[in-house]
Structure formats: C-alpha cells, structure tokens
Amino acid sequence: MSMVEEPLYPIAVLIDELKNDDIQLRLNSIRRLSTIARALGEDRTRKELIPFLSENNDDDDEVLLAMAEELGVFIPYVGGVEHAHVLLPPLETLCTVEETCVRDKAVESLCRIGSQMRENDLVDWFIPLVKRLAAGEWFTARVSACGLFHIAYPSASEMLKTELRSIYSQLCQEDMPMVRRSAASNLGKFAATVESAYLKADIMQIFEDLTQDDQDSVRLLVVEGCPTLGKLLKPQDCVAHILPVIVNFSQDKSWRVRYMVANQLYELCDAVGPEPTRTDLVPAYVWLLRDNEAEVRIAAAGKVTKFCRILSPELAILQILPCVKELSSDSSQHVRSALASVIMGMAPVLGKDATIEQLLPIFLSLLKDEFPDVRLNIISKLDQVNQVIGIDLLSQSLLPAIVELAEDRHWRVRLAIIEYIPLLASQLGVGFFDDKLGALCMQWLQDKVYSIRDAAANNLKRLAEEFGPDWAMQHIIPQVLEMVNNSNYLYRMTILRAISLLAPVMGLEITCSKLLPVVINASKDRVPNIKFNVAKVLLSLVPIVDQSVVEKTIRPCLVELGEDPDVDVRYFANEGLQSIHHVMISS
Amino acid sequence: MKNGGAEAAVAWVGGTQPLEWKFSQVFGERTAGEEVQEVDIISAIEFDRTGDHLATGDRGGRVVLFERTDTHHVGHRRDLEKMDHPINRHPEFRYKTEFQSHEPEFDYLKSLEIEEKINKIRWCQSANGSLFLLSTNDKTIKFWKVQEKKVKNVCDTNVNSTKAMGNGPIVGSSISTTSKQYIANGGCTNNDFSFPTGGFPSLHLPVVTSHESNLMARCRRIYAHAHDYHINSISNNSDGETFISADDLRINLWNLEISNQSFNIVDVKPANMEDLTEVITSAEFHPTHCNTLAYSSSKGSIRLIDMRQSALCDTHSKLFEEQEAPSSRSFFTEIIASISDIKFAKDGRHMLSRDYMTLKLWDINMDSGPVATFQVHEYLRPKLCDLYENDSIFDKFECCLSGDGLRVATGSYSNLFRVFGCSEGSTEATTLESSKNPMRRQGQMPSRPSRSLGSLSGVVRGVKGADNSGVDTNGNTFDFTTKLLHLAWHPTENSLACAASNSLYMYYA
C-alpha cells in the first residue's frame, strides 16, 4: 500500500496475483495480462513482463494454457510487429510442456505471431526457434516443431529451405510415434508452402514413407491428409502419387485405416478428376461399402450421398445403388441407421424416375426396419424426398411407421417422433394429418412419461402455429379442454401446461372465451399441485388478455387461491398477485 | 553354491553359465517379531523402460518410487543405453518419493466396497524430466505425473506483502473480493485509467525466489466407471497414446488423453451368466506391434488378438493352449491350469505365462504348444487338496523375463523365487530365497533340468528332512502364508526386484 497510490490499487493487486497461491486468482490475472501490460507500458512489458512469464513455466496447466492463448494476441502490447519476436521465448517453453492442449495452443499462438512478423525477423528469430524445437531433447518439443514449419518455410533462404525440408523428413522418421503422428498431421499445411518442384520430390517421398509406417495411428493421419495433399498437386500427379496410395489404403489390413478412407474418399474425387474416379475410386468405395467390418460400412454408408453427388447419375445408379440396396438390409443396425440418415439426400441426385423405381423400395424397407433409430432417421429427412417424388407415394407406408414409433416402448423413441410431427404435418398437409395423426397427438398428452407429455403439449403449440388458430380451434382445443376433467391429476396438469402454451398462439378472443374459464374452473381442483399451477398459468395469461379481464377474472381467482390452506398454493398465488401489481404500475 | 558344481558344468555345456545371485538391497525390511500391517503389503512392482526407476504399489493404495543411483546422469537416457556398464557395477536404487494413489471407496449403487489396493502399475513415456505412470485398483485407473516442483517464495509485491502474509486468509480473501469486483468491472477500468505511454513506473512485477525443489505427484486423469468387474491388468500400447485395461470379462481400450470414454474391444461375457466357464486373467500389448495384444484365461489358454481385423475382437487370431494329458486329469486340473500372468519378451516373439504349477514359454509363431515348460510347483501336486482347502491354489503368481530374454523368473511359497534359463540347451534352474542370503535355500529345492517331468515327490520328502528350522506346526516345509507373488526383472541388467510381504528385496547377478 505504501508504494502504490490508491487508483492503481486494483492493477497492483492484479500483478501481485500472478503469483498468488490460489490458482483461480492466477488464472484471472493471466486473463487480464493485456491490462497489466498496458499499465507497465510497452518498454517494461518487453523487458520485464515477458521474461517474467518465460520463467513461469512450471505453473498449473490451466494457467499455462491461458498464458499461451493470451500471448498469441500480445503483439500490440509489446510495441507492435517490430518487437513481436520478444514473444517467442515464453511460447517456446510452452511448446515443450507435457500437456498436449497447452502445446497445441502455444503452437497456434506462435503461428499467429509468426504470420504477422516481418520477413527478416522470421529468419532471425522464428526459424532458429523451429530448429531448436525440432532438435529438442524431449519428444514434446519435436511434436510442437512439426506444426511451425509452414510459417517458417516461406521466408527462409534457399539454403535454409533445403535444411528445413530435411529436418521435416527426419521428424517423419523419428523413433517416437508421437512425433511421427504430429509430422503426418501437419504435412498438408507444410506441403502447401513448399515449391511444386520439391513438392513432387521431397514431400512425396516423406508422404510415401509415412504411408508405410508400421504404427496404424500414423497411417490413419496420412489418410486424413490425402485430400489436402491431393488438392495441391496437378490432377495427373495426384493420380500418379496419391491415388495408388489411397486405393491401397482402402484395402489396408487395419479396419481403422479403411474407416478413415471411407470417410475421406469423396474429397479426393475432385482432385483426381472424373476418369480416375470412375476407374479407381468408385471400385474402392464399393469395396468399402461391402467391408467386413461394420464400423467401416457405417462410415462408408454415411458418405453415400456426398459421394453420389460427385458422380454422374448413371454411375451412381449402376455402381453405388446396388450396394445401397445391400446396406439397407445390413446385419448391423448401426449401418442401416447411418444409411437411413443420408439416403434421402440421394433422391435429388438420382432424379424422379430412378428414385421411384430404385430408391423408394429401399426407403420403404428402412421405414419398416425393426430398429427404431433407422425409421426415425428416414422420417427426419422426409422433406428431401417430398421435393422429388411427392409424399403420396410414401404416405401409405409412412403412417404405420409413425404409429408404431408413436407407441414404441422406449420413451426416447416416442420423444423423437413427437419432435418430427410438425415437420411431418407441414409435409403431409392438413388433410392427411387430421385423418391419421390428430388422435396420436392427443394420446401423447396422456403418456406415462412426463417428458413425453411435456413434448406433446409443445407439439400442440407448434401445430397451432403451423395450421393457424382456426384449425386449432376446430381440431385441438375441444379435445384438450375435454381432458381437463381426467381423473389423473398429472394429466390435468399437462392440460394446464398445454393451455399456457396455446394461449399466445390462439389470441385474445379464444383465450378469454374458451381457455380462461377452464383455468378458473381448475382453481377449484382438490389437488394443491393443480391449484398452484393454475396460479402460474394465470400469470402467463396476463400479457395476452385485457386489463379488464385481469381485474375481473384473474385477480379475484388469485386472491381466492391466496387464502388456500396449502402453503405452496398461497405462495404462488401471492407471487402472481405481486407481479400483476408490478405490471399494472409499470403500464 | 555348494551343490551347484555339477549343475554349473552341465549348464556350461549348454552354453550359458547359471547366474550367481547376490543380495543387493532391501527396502522396508522386517525386524524380528515385527507385525506386518496389511496395508503395507506390496501388491505391484514395475521397472520403467530404462530401468532407472522402479515403482511399487501396496494394499494401502500407495505408490512408492525408487530411482537408480549407480548411474551418473539419469537425464541422458539415449547415451545410457548405448553405454556399457562396468561389470562390477550393479543397479542400486534409492527411495525417491511416494504418494497416495487410491483411497478406499464405496459404491453406493452396488453396495460394494472398493479396495484401495494397487493391482497394477505401468510406466508411461516420460517427458521433460517428469515421470508418468498409470496405477489401478479394482475399478479405477489413474494417470500420475511426478515432477520436480520449485518451492516458490514470492516477495516484493506491490501491495504490502508482509501484512498480507501476516494476516493470512483474511487479507487474502479481501484481496480476492477486490479483484473480483475489479474484474467484474473490467470494462470500466479502461475509462478509469488512462494508461500513460510509459506505463506506471510505481508498479512492478512480484519477484520470485526459489531455492529448493520438491517432488510432487499430481493425478492428471482418472479413467473410471468402465469396468463392471475387477481390473486385473493394464498395459500401454507401443503407439504411446493408448492403453488397455482388462477385467474378468472385458478388455477396454483407452486414449491416455481422454478419460471419459473407452472402447470395449474384447467381451467374453455370455448372454447368460450361468454359461460362464472362462474369465480373463491377464492382458498385455505386444511390445512393438501396436495392433497385437494377448490375453490369458482361467482355462489356461492365451489368445492373441489382431486389433486391425475388427472393432470388437471377439475372435482371436491365434490360440495357445496345452491340454493336460487325460491320464493326469483330476478335480484340480482346471483350477491349476488357470494362467495368473502373461508377459511378452522384449523381442516380441516370445510370451511367458504362469499357471499354478508351471512357467511356460511360447513362441507366438507356434501355436501347437509351448517351446519350454518349467516346473515350479510340481512337488505340490500331492498337496493340491490342502491347497484347495486353504485357498492357496488360487494364489496369483506373476512372472517376468530378463531383458535379454535368456532367463525367466517367478515366485513361490516360503518367500522363494525361481530363475530358469530359457535359451536353447540351458538347464539353469535356481531357487532363491527373498532374504539377505538368497542362496541359502540352494539345494534344498529341487533344481532339476527344467524339461524333466519325473516325479518330484521324493525330493519334496527330502526337503522335509533337510530343513528343520522352517517347519511349521503342521509339519509343512512350505509356508503358504509367505508367498512371493510379485517380482520384476530389470529391463537391461540382471537384477531382480522381489516383493516379500511388505519388504522389497533387490538382487543382482
């Protein structure tokens, strides 16, 4: 206190807390590092704060992570780009810590700073840093180094570039799989900065070495990088270098590698061009769709629409569609489920005729699947089919599927189908809905499970929004109001909930004439839970109705409830009265 | 070796000289008449990959670390491995640190007590001078980091520090509220202060002095709630990022960095638990092939799994088992066939398994039968009934291989352990006692050519006569209460660490 004048006190505390024993306070201070820097000034930030932070490397990971992030945007506080290099040392230490997320963040910040640094500063400071990390004693430093080459490389001299390329290739041959993994996953970024001559020579050599790695985890990452790398190459080079590799990978012994290929394959089609796609990639993809391992088929099935979009419709019908047909009766429910979630997207690709002829039978069989997720996935994408073939063709099989899902014994399945009802309603139209689905929506209001009843009430609101108040007046309100006399108080409570949701949609007149009397009536229920819910609902109706109605109907009812023997009812009634009071005053 | 002359000669012909084991060190030695606390009993031993560190876990949930002292610079592991050690040197260790890894817990849902006992310890890749290891009890695996932490002394703060320190928590709390208000009003400060270009000269950074450092163990991750049954093994993958944990019926695959999900890769649980005939007893990853792992079962088989083939590896790629000759089958056949431990040799080509009676060495390219069988407990065969009565027959002895793969070792009763030579033609079979005088029992136990299947009952009788001092009230020579279950071979040297109850004995040859 003696040294700091009063207005500076908060900042003084902030600085002191950089070294507080409480991690939360240290974290707060680090998060406000920019404020500290501004209080110290640029010069002292460079000379004191940054070296101070450099030594602060054995703190808890949370603090280090925050520090790595803050330093990434610290250039303005050290005096601009010409001083940016002073930020490198603390980040360099952070690149060597054991915790992966801290290292990743430090690398990210270094890249951000490096991409703003002046070219000669990069040569003087950044490139030596990359080289130091790449030669680090512990693998952690070498792992981090791999992510920095693409920043360092462009500004390096010819000689340095050669050196950097050779260092990178050494990192790819490291003993430690962690380093090779990092090198493999950063190869695409680095390759994007390398001149095309070296791309074909050096980078492709590295790439080929990595594809032979005996660690599955390394090869997986190579597959992931294939599309990026492929896009950098000319199509003929891509065909020469990447295509054989990916085709090979599609028959790799490890299912995890094939799984990756199945996920990535469609991205490569553009890079290699249409002809190699037809001759090589389509057969590879067909293999994957028929893979022994269900996980691979799941991945492949999930990409079937994306893949077909790239192909010509003929090719898709000729090659892919037969596989899709097989997958629709796959032994694994997860494969069928993955297929069901994307197969609707194939309709626009194939066109109307092929869809009706080929795809429709598959839809229908999936709609009858024994596994509810499969059916749900089809129903959730119904709008896409509607655009192509119209709903009429589907509706016959659709209804039994919906009814069955609506009565599924797993409440989560019932919940899922309720969520799709408004979508279905909009697609199927009022007529169809009235006939078949209206009863279901009422039935859910009396479900055994609260979440379903709650969702059912919400569903009614969304339907009323979709079809308008007039329709709702005819098809929803009477049935709902009828249920308010149900003998089970839980169901009566659901109706109150539905009323409070429907009222805003139905508008003033219907609310006053139809809904409000029912609510008022319910205030004489024998169950206290109903009564205090009445108090809550009444309150929600206040904004909708006229002030006179509030005075004439709502307030007296609340007053009466306020004298109820039950303490909870009294509480909510008084709450209601108070807020009505506030609303009146403010309006 | 008094009686060893002839045997040594035989071994010499075979190509390898039997090792002469000498006592090196003991940690936690029992004094005469000292009662052993249950919690102090060692339940796991593991050397790290370099052999510079040794970890033990005990029934009290503690992990104790030891570090090697006879090498000058522990830091440069690469150089160390290349360096030839002078012959007269042998590994010596000193206590490094210890920490409480697991605490007793209670599973309220299942009304089950969860013991804190450490079942297994596995070392992970070290980095930046910090040590990393996994430890597990029956249910929960924990990832530990042990590092030197500087003891910080903050001085010269902006706000009067002596006062703050003197008043301790009170001032601390007032500061924290101030700072919270301050942070809550963070937006206002920019208006409150106009920062001069040179900053405020009166402010300065706290000065930190540190004189000494402390070893600190921090639990970095907890991998929990993935096992319905008791975890018997954990094993690291050569990829450095994944590990497996095995319980009686399932094996799960984890990523070291992700503690909230694991993948089930082996599930032997039958649809109906009444059909259960076989449980998993131990599992280990191949030392170099990232996709290969082996697990052993209570029926005496070892299954090799190729994780590349399928996500759920219910079908093995290779099965190793040896059926007992029908003539010698008895009520105990299945019980004694149960494998208590398997270990891969460093070369990845061989596997060692331990069942109640034998050690078996397998070649993973030969699934017709073991390449060698070493009789460890054959002399107990007449006593199986007694052993069944007192539950000893279910004791789980571990086994280990030397770094060069030339020898194997396993524990026995009466704090004895046995070392066998397994190179071609070797007849080395040494029995040692876990005490300061390991060769004391030499000659008392049958040290016979390992591949002999002759009856040993005569020899056992001989032992009874020879050893008076160790006879207990029942007249049994072998004390079933003092069993040496856990032992580990140094990865590069002929050095063994053995757990005899609460004491850790180190031997070298």
From TrEMBL, chain A:
GO terms for molecular function: protein phosphatase regulator activity. Keywords: Repeat. It comes from the Eukaryota. The keyword Repeat applies. InterPro entries: ARM-like, ARM-type_fold, HEAT, HEAT_type_2, PP2A/SF3B1-like_HEAT, PP2A_Regulatory_Subunit_A. It holds the Pfam family PPP2R1A-like_HEAT. Signal peptide: none annotated. Residues 276-351 form the Phosphatase PP2A regulatory subunit A/Splicing factor 3B subunit 1-like HEAT repeat domain. GO terms for cellular component: cytosol; nucleus; protein phosphatase type 2A complex. HEAT repeats lie at residues 10-48, 203-241, 242-280, 281-316, 320-358, 359-397, 398-436, 437-475, 476-514, 515-553, 554-587. Belongs to the phosphatase 2A regulatory subunit A family. PANTHER family: SERINE/THREONINE-PROTEIN PHOSPHATASE PP2A 65 KDA REGULATORY SUBUNIT, SERINE_THREONINE-PROTEIN PHOSPHATASE 2A 65 KDA REGULATORY SUBUNIT A BETA ISOFORM-RELATED. This is Serine/threonine-protein phosphatase 2A 65 kDa regulatory subunit A beta isoform-like.
From TrEMBL, chain B:
This is Serine/threonine-protein phosphatase 2A 55 kDa regulatory subunit B. PP2A consists of a common heteromeric enzyme, composed of a catalytic subunit (subunits C), a constant regulatory subunit (subunit A), and a variety of regulatory subunits such as subunits B (the R2/B/PR55/B55, R3/B''/PR72/PR130/PR59 and R5/B'/B56 families). Interacts with SIC/RON3. GO terms for cellular component: protein phosphatase type 2A complex. SUPFAM superfamilies: WD40 repeat-like (SSF50978). Belongs to the phosphatase 2A regulatory subunit B family. One of its GO terms (molecular function) is protein phosphatase regulator activity. Residues 446-456 have a biased composition (Low complexity).
